[in-house]
Amino acid sequence: MTDLLLLPGDGIGPEVTAQVRRVVTALAPDLKVEERLFGGASYDAHGTPLTDEALTTAKASRAVLMGAVGGPQWAGVPRDKRPEAGLLALRGGMEVFANLRPALCFQPLADASSLKREVVEGLDFMIVRELTGGIYFGSPRFIEDLPGGGKRAVDTQVYTTAEIERVARVAFELARGRRNKVTSAEKSNVMDSGLLWRQVVTDLHARDYADVELEHILADNAAMQIVKNPKQFDVMVTDNLFGDILSDISAQLTGSLGMLPSAALGVAGKPGLYEPIHGSAPDIAGQGLANPLAAILSFEMALRWSLDRTDLADKLFAAVNKALEDGARTRDLGGALTTVQMGDAVLTAL
Ligand code: NAD
Ligand code: IPM
Ligand code: MN
């Protein structure tokens, strides 16, 4: 059985996953690692962003680590063949419905954020993003020509009780091991799916998690509060689209989008999908400028959540912190290290 399937993908994806591979070799040489083309790279080679074989291998692995997908060269490809469609098919196919996106400000980076030190220092907050439902997967979905000229485009936001409940349960369970507070973000003031979201979370809380503090917040206010005073939050649970946006905002609190890892989890015992939350960064791809820490920290999450190696995860986390303490900085963090040199710094610290 494959322990770790690497899907480097496109743009900076292969650059950052190459550093993960070095870390795996140094830290856990016993892991059986495989690699497959994914995203635009797979489309170019196989005519599809995710082959059946790659999905089957992913489902049969203990953990999957993805780099990033997409880029301007695939902008003209039909939607269902685009690199991003491959990522959605992978998430849906692996049924990883709960996406943990930790916004954690490493102490040495307290001055690297565009926000003031006192706002971000000591920050440790977790977004739990619903990942296999909502407007990303709802139907109908189409663009059509209108008889009088012009077009009409439709996307559909759909959530069921079961989909909301299972992701909220993950958030409550996580909170119990942290600071015992869940904030649920939606737009119940304008959306029926938001109304249902609030009701299901409220009911689940009363039924099974009354010991956890629960607060509801409208998603627009959540965006503002994350920038104003992020340390008020412990775990924030939200839908697929709001979670996408709120986690990019939160990434900036940690110093850079290149710092934020994620773990997408589904049913216990099934493999998790680990991905940095950043994209393929076409503006810096191929130049050795990408920060590999989000990808390396995604492997740290894989060790913790899928590979049963908390000891190694702790070691890797400490090594990343040490590298940052020693001043290792890629350009996004205000430094001059290349991607490989940042990998070197983590390996040295290990
Ligand atoms: P992006 O995340 O690729 O880049 C946004 C900005 O952040 C860019 O300036 C980029 O240089 C910078 N950045 C991102 N990651 C970095 C890193 N590790 N180190 C240093 N700087 C980094 O977002 P975008 O430009 O909006 O999207 C580009 C492509 O990536 C699109 O095709 C998009 O669909 C795709 N995308 C993929 C994923 C994914 O695979 N999970 C996530 C987001 C976007
Ligand atoms: C992310 C990305 C993806 C998303 C895209 C590339 C499909 O932005 O992982 O945050 O929107 O989920
Ligand atoms: Mn995103």
UniProtKB/TrEMBL annotation:
Any one GO BP annotation for this protein: L-leucine biosynthetic process
MF annotations from Gene Ontology: 3-isopropylmalate dehydrogenase activity; magnesium ion binding; NAD binding
Keyword Amino-acid biosynthesis set for record: yes
Localization per Swiss-Prot or TrEMBL: Cytoplasm
Binding site for Mg(2+): 220, 244, 248
Record's catalysed reaction(s): (2R,3S)-3-isopropylmalate + NAD(+) = 4-methyl-2-oxopentanoate + CO2 + NADH
Keyword entries, A-Z: Amino-acid biosynthesis, Branched-chain amino acid biosynthesis, Cytoplasm, Leucine biosynthesis, Magnesium, Manganese, Metal-binding, NAD, Oxidoreductase
Family of the protein in this entry: Belongs to the isocitrate and isopropylmalate dehydrogenases family. LeuB type 1 subfamily.
Subunit field text: Homodimer.
PANTHER family tied to this protein: 3-ISOPROPYLMALATE DEHYDROGENASE
Name under which the protein is recorded: 3-isopropylmalate dehydrogenase
Gene field: leuB
